[in-house]
Amino acid sequence: MIGYVTVGTNDIARAAKFYDAIAAEMGTPRMMEFDNFIAWGKPDGGAGIAATKPHDGNAASVGNGVMVALEAKDSEQVQRIYDIALANGGSDEGPPGPRGEGFYAGYFRDPDGNKLNAFVMG
């Protein structure tokens, strides 16, 4: 149902560095790029993610309760994505580990404060 998710940024170059690193780990290339917008995904693939400067010209801000979940292949990839996020300007929101029956996830924020996680079910 979800085609893609967009997060706001106030620094497109910084966002590009952060999301390029995570996308490389996940084998997901940039598929669309403009001066103020970059999207990562694959045509005919799963939902993608985009970083954009807000169209209205106001500063980007974080939505309280909003989170983007990135589906990993396994728990080792969850750890790698989490580590990549922190190494590229992200901040910790909860290290990788089990989060209830059959759910493993690590939580982090991008350099603009948008909350994400990497997870695996099973």
Write a compact overview of the structure shown.
This protein has 122 residues and is an alpha/beta fold.
What does the model show?
- With 122 residues, this protein is α/β, with parallel strands linked by helices.
- It has one domain (4-54, 67-121): 2,3-Dihydroxybiphenyl 1,2-Dioxygenase, domain 1.
- It has two helices and eight strands.
- The strands form two sheets. It has a four-stranded mixed beta sheet, covered by helices on one side. The protein has a four-stranded mixed beta sheet with strand order 5-8-7-6.
- Helix 1 packs antiparallel against helix 2.
Radius of gyration: 14 Å
Largest sheet: 4 strands, mixed
Percentage of β-strand residues? 35-45%
The SSE order reads EHEEEEHEEE
Spatial ordering of strands, largest sheet: 1-4-3-2
How many angstroms does the end-to-end distance come to? 22 Å
Number of helices: 2
Fourth-level CATH superfamily: 2,3-Dihydroxybiphenyl 1,2-Dioxygenase, domain 1
Under CATH, the topology can be stated as 2,3-Dihydroxybiphenyl 1,2-Dioxygenase, domain 1
- Number of E strands: 8
Backbone structural class? alpha/beta
Low-confidence stretches: none
Mean pLDDT: 95
CATH architecture field: Roll
- Overall geometry comes to globular
CATH C-level class is: Alpha Beta
State the domain count: 1
